[in-house]
Design a protein that fits this description.
By secondary structure, the protein is α+β, with helices and mostly antiparallel strands. The protein is built from 22 helices and 20 strands.
Length: 610
Amino acid sequence: MRRALLLLAPALLLAAPVTTAVAATGIATPAKTPVAVGTGGGVASESVEATQAGISVLKNGGNAIDAAVATAATLGATEPSVAGPGGGGFMVIYLAKTKQLVTIDGREMCPARCTPELFVDPKTGAPLDFELARHSGISVGVPGMVAQWAKAVRLYGTKSFGSDLQPAIRVATDGFPVSVNFHQSEVSTLTDLQSFSSSRKLLLTPDGQPLPVGAHFVNPDLARTYQLLAQHGPGYLYTGPLAQAIARTVQSPPVTPDATITVLPGMMTTKDLSNYVARNRRPTHVTYRGLDVYGMAPPSSGGTTMGEALNILSGWPLGAEPRSQALFHYLESTRLAFADRNAYVGDPDYVPVPTQGLLDKQFAATRRCLVHGTALTSPVAPGSPYPPFAGCSTTNRKPTTPREGMQTNHLVTSDRWGNVVSYTNTIEQLFGSGITVPGYGFLLNNEMTDFDFAPPAPGGHDPNLPAPGKRPRSSMSPTIVLRGGTPWLALGSPGGSTIITTTLQTLINRVDFGMTMPQAIAAPRASQRNGAATDVEPAFAAQPYANVLTRTYGENLSVIGPPSFDPPVIGFVNALEFLGGGRVQAATEPARLGGGSAMVVNPNASGPGR
């Protein structure tokens, strides 16, 4: 059977987080812990099974890179709505032996038949409806995840690719209890999952309904896929039988006879898969309050946008300002940085991206001087990140407001040798395209919808239009911060374009506001992305500074909702802080989306929190 629906007792389902849930098979699931301190390395992720997978690799001689691959692969089993071999991501790595920061771009690529009109209706000339595009074959990009995993292990790991997949194989085989978050994800995407026979078979009950909380979910097809990848290497996905299955699924999605949605076929071929390459790219780098902040360069916009915002913020003494004023400066810094992100950032293999200018402190000064005592009116025009930098910089470029999926995952790992990984990956929307590869147990991404849908008007410029082999712009912001030349923090978040603001806000909470890392993660969030309103969590709106932001500074705060998850949240941070003496603090969300899982190899609960 695809799965066994062995329900837990209701009393067990409602038990407090400190208890241990035991599935009907007798397999124990350790409790989630949001903070762990100790030595030997640490891991933090959304899933307790995934975090445990990374820790097991560290205990068996693997390094942080091996642990990151093991954790990510296991998330493909435990969090199929946001992870798995059908997606891609960005990995930032600190190599202790050489004191280098390296990054690997595993972003998905557009098939060879892509054109700038990929998402334009040929009959009307108008952009396709987003939902139609999302759950169609045309949204699926060539997956980069497996190539990225294999390259990371080959270049920087200490174990083998096949060895690092073993924990994920065990979890997919043995299974785990369905969480509230897993169940709610299925509820919110039920129509899509019901519309594809392979997804219905894998993820729903026999009568096509969401798996109930506590059901024991197993995925033998994914376990077999991982076993084949372990045996044959990444070529099995890019040139072997799995490549053929992916191309066939994209070209002819397995739509059910009773589907109520329209599904368009895609154009991916096996040649597209065989041409995929995971690329090393130079990380972004800015200095902030004496720290070295490293991130992901384009085609991710995370490093440039966060770096520009930090450069803007460096001109204000946030820690000495009243909290409302400091938050006003935070919101205006991202408003301006997002205007520049949307105007200039795309795949650097296809468009010239002024990365150096965007990260220049003199350019930041030309943006900072636009901020006075009242919120700017969005959409703010982009600046000109080309020297010489002078005055308060604006251009005549038309501001844009792209759409980006909110569902991603982030993980962090470290080891006893001092290596560190900050890794964000995704299949885009919840359950990606909604299309499972029949017989292989994983969903395909819808990353191509991260491209802009409509070409600009004549004379306009858009760096993020589809093209053959091009990678869409992303907001993923895996970040590593050095203090005195050695790692101090590693952090990141899911959340589409709110990834950038979430990671930035968590960093300034820690650096400028003096919060501990657990406090910085738990604090209420706000996200301004050059929009008319600033998205805020309900807990942020309830704070006294929210009224000051509105009445004194003219910020338009909009509480996010209606919630598809209760309560509505922005982001889901996983982080590491290095405390000295080989000790590390792993920290994750204590409450958002049910909380995450933080572990260390050798626990030591007496460690300081900062």
